[in-house]
Amino acid sequence: WERGEGPRRGAVSAFGMGGVNAHVILEEAPEAPVRAGAVPGSRVVRVTGADETAVRALAAAYADRFDAARDDWETADLCHTANVGRSPLEFQTAVVGRDAAELATALRAVAAGRVPIARADGGHPAERAPEDAAPAGAPHGPADVADVVALVRAGHAHVDWAALSPPGARATDLPTYPFAAQKHWHTHRAAAPAAPPAPTAPAAAPAAGTDRRPEALRVVWDTAEAPSPADVPGRATVCPVTSDPALREALTAALRDRGAVVVGTAADADTVIVVDAPGGPAAEPPDLSAFWTELADLVKRLPAHGTLLRVGHHGVAVHGAERARVRPETAATAMAVRAACAESRKHSAVVDLDPADPVEVRARQIAAEYAALPHGSGTGPGTEPPSGVLAAYRRGVRYAPRAVAAPPGPSYDLHGDGYYLVTGGLGAVGRLLIRRLVDRGALRVGVVGRSALDADRSAELRDLSRRAEVAYLSCDVRDASALADAARRFGARWGRLRGVVHCSGRVNPFGAMHRRPWSDAVKVTDPKITGSLNAVRLARERGADFAVLVSSIAGSMARAGRGLVDYSLANAYQLALAERENGTATTVTAHAWPNWTGTGMEADASYSAAHSLGADEAADAFLDHLRSGGAVVFPGAAPTPARNGSAVPSVPAGLSVPYAPADSAAPPAPGAGLPAEAGTTGPSPLMTRAVPVRDAARPGTHPAGARTRGATPAPAAGGPDHAVMRGHVRDAFVHVLGEDPGDRAIRTLGLDSLVIAELTTVLEQRGGRTVDPSLLMRAGTADDLASALVADTQPSPGAPPAPAAARNGTGDGAGGPHLPAPKAPGAPGIPSALSALLHPLLAHDRDR
Ligand SMILES: NC(=O)c1ccc[n+]([C@@H]2O[C@H](COP(=O)([O-])OP(=O)(O)OC[C@H]3O[C@@H](n4cnc5c(N)ncnc54)[C@H](OP(=O)(O)O)[C@@H]3O)[C@@H](O)[C@H]2O)c1
Fold first, then answer.
1. Where is composition skewed (Low complexity) in this entry (predicted)?
2. CATH for 419-641?
């Protein structure tokens, strides 16, 4: 197209029967002026967004774009585009810099929260703008742009932005506003579950024929407000622990900006921030032994008001596209942190970061979460331990988890060719689920477990054989080749593997994490970590339709993991593994169950009073969610009914006995009511009243021979023995709870059985005597407790060593300090029934 006198013009027409009626005339662009030489002066960039989070996210994206600017003119173009090529939104800020590198650094400071963001104030009159802002056409020196920046950060909305662009600046490509990624469409909600019965009422069995389904939930991640900074006390110390020197440096600076005193050793810190290295794919199964020991040590050393902030990467899938990158070991260790802190009543927070975010941005995000922690406010005895703050950041945007209803998965016909494999199938849950699979049409079920079939279980399987083929093979799920061999043998007989239900698992007795060696914890984690990896791999390799991992709410609720941190860790691994492994060919689902009332392990017993499900109801929900995919949580609701119709609660009595004040309704025993010894400072319920000890398992009864308190004259408070014992009591409280209760009533401290077990153990270690745990429940104050201990306990030297079985449930108690055996009920000087119930627990832990 040859150039003539005038500009070249063209036209495009479109007219159609459908109503198109358009004629467009195009004219060639004017010749671009030659832009040579350096662009003088500083540059200013405005960042605006619908909210603060959007401004910070946009600043992060701008920073990346400025990094890619090739020369000063492109930098000027980028500033021009940001300032005049974007509509102003409600929130704004501005930065200044001499070149692209300075601007990128300043923008990252915005992204990291170090630069204030203002709500644009439309109230500033437009006519004031020329005086406020840099005058149009004036040289764009540092003073001018600095003024503009100050005005923008103060909320002035009317700035003549075009006047700040050098002549010749052009619009260019620049990231646009980030999407808020928030869903606003109507989501299907499962029918609301029937209102849970009052906590004291027995669990109502679902009426025959009703379609009552337990609540099922999934976790989704929503964009969330930046955390609100709390007051960081002047002397608050924090220790960042990371193997990345650049992050440590940036984090130290960011924490100092927030007013924290950064210290080099965790032992001196009120808050410890442990940042997991992003790293590549971890070994599977992961070796968590070092993590376990370090966590136990950290939590033990943390002061009572302290916080453990754990930072990981890829522990959660904030967006669906991230699922394949989820690291189950990160999810598992994060859960262990939360459970361990809940157990020892310390604060925890878990933050999942985007390794793609620059180091400074991540450092700012961690510092912002740190600043929002409840500094210096220990949870204190008697208050519910916190479950831990959870947050995630992706591309500068903060997210928080939210539970939404999980509708049942696609229906699945269990009839047909092939077979189902149930691991741990001789266990209580496994047996119930096999029966339920057969009830719903499964024709062939292969069962594996490590034990040999006993008479009872083989009778149960034979009973099912009338309706389906059921066969058992002995196999340890931790051994991948043994599991594959079992599948090969079942397959040779029945053909295709259609689905795997992984029920193998075990639980350790309740106990504090810092006294549980990894060699014990691994017995719980192995079948759930290695076993789950093997089960899922087998299902996928054989093209099975589904794999279900039978998991627990201890893997998703920190409080449910108290005393069971290993179990919590293992179940969290299963839940995250299902999120990662779920695919189109083989659906992988992990079910987080509460306690199944009336069946199986007592793993969730600590939580069962408030969180349990009837076993039949749970088995129905299992089938509904056979192919839901990912992690499905069943929080449960019904209170636990008595097992087998007996009055024995499913929660081990020693772990659930509520505090019974010394002056409870129990009738006084003969010899009661002795006055306190002269010299005591006042009447103490412990010393002046006889309190028959009640049998925890049978309320209202008094075990034969139960000793009455108060018959022993109390030593004078303040005597030498008392002073020593009071010192032991103080030490024990400080060791376990982080503080001495002083004159406060012990019953107001809300001690639960785990804490009592710990206190008892420490008292025994310090005092070298057997301590009756029930004294802790009946003493008025720490002083009373010291007096009672002086009066009540006898020194142990010369006492025969405890039989091994009494010291340790497995009898392998070599190596631990010697402890006297618990006194046998009925013997003179016997401890209470409660004490007898608690003793196996204490004895188990003592040898650690
Ligand atoms: N019962 C509940 O209320 C409840 C609540 C929430 C979650 N769960 C979960 O449900 C699952 C089953 O619990 P349950 O109550 O049925 O417990 P259970 O009665 O103790 O059964 C567990 C079974 O796992 C088997 N097992 C353990 N380690 C194994 C290994 N390495 N290889 C093969 N099999 C192994 C055991 O058999 P061998 O020792 O013979 O191998 C046992 O039969 C567990 O994963 C548990 O976390 C149960």
1. 132-141, 663-683, 703-720
2. 3.40.50.720
